[in-house]
Design brief:
The chain has helices at residues 10-26, 80-89, 102-110, 149-161, 183-204, and strands at 36-40, 45-49, 63-67, 95-99, 116-120, 137-143, 168-171, 175-180. It is of the alpha+beta class. Helix 1 (10-26) runs parallel beside helix 5. The longest helix is centred in the last third of the chain and has 22 residues, at 183-204. The termini are far apart. The protein binds zinc ion (ZN). Zinc ion binds at residues 34, 79, 98, 100, 174-175.
């Protein structure tokens, strides 16, 4: 496992959050103020988007400093626990994005009963850190949606213990979580997932 990324100031972490949010907003991945983004500052804190912000136009005032293992911040999004519990369980994760990608949302319902979406043989799998050949099978876990995000976060951690490697997971009928060591890795992983999910949807032949 990689080392914990080095400490970041709140300002630097917030800039990473804004870069991911603007990317997702510009690519139509966070419709109607959905989605959220975070960058780890250190072992105990992360910069996270506040609830309700328009991610395409996110500003530093809409990013909050959240305790990874503490009380919920008053401006935290309901989906905050899904970021913070990931940081608590995986010290090598430095940034996380959550998007409501159209292709991912459709595929997550189609494959919910299987519990995974299998991505296999695509050249762009090499965009994920550590994957060196298209001859790769990436099983993206799919979990059922749940409005109780504390309970959902625990379910996700149980599922992820069984799935390696995992660069993200789908929530059925809802969206995609993606992570990486730095926000720049997450930008690349988001872009790769979006391409691969669209390719998969087209290949399955039912738009
Ligand atoms: Zn969501």
């Amino acid at each position: 496992m990689a080392e914990t990324p080095s400490d970041l100031s709140f300002a630097d972490a917030a800039d990473g959050v804004i870069a991911m949010a603007h990317y997702a907003g510009a690519h139509g991945l966070v419709p109607a103020t959905s989605g959220n983004f975070s960058v780890r500052m250190n072992a105990t804190h992360a910069a996270v988007t506040a609830t309700g912000a328009n991610k395409a136009a996110l500003t530093r005032g809409e990013v909050i400093e959240a305790e990874i293992d503490g009380e919920r911040h008053p401006r935290a999004s309901a989906e905050g626990p899904l970021h913070l519990v990931r940081y608590a369980h995986a010290p090598d994760i430095g940034a996380i994005s959550h998007v409501h990608s159209l292709a991912g949302t459709v595929l997550s319902r189609r494959h919910e009963a299987e519990g995974v979406l299998r991505l296999e043989g695509w050249e762009l799998l090499k965009a994920f850190s550590g994957i060196r050949t298209h001859e790769t099978v990436l099983d993206v876990p799919i979990v059922a949606n749940d409005q109780d995000t504390d309970r959902l976060a625990m379910l996700v951690e149980r599922r992820l213990r069984e799935s390696t490697p995992a660069f993200g997971y789908l929530i059925a009928g809802h969206g995609l979580y993606v992570w990486g060591a730095t926000y720049k890795d997450v930008l690349r992983h988001m872009e790769a997932f979006e391409f691969l999910l669209n390719a998969q949807l087209m290949e399955e032949g039912r738009p």
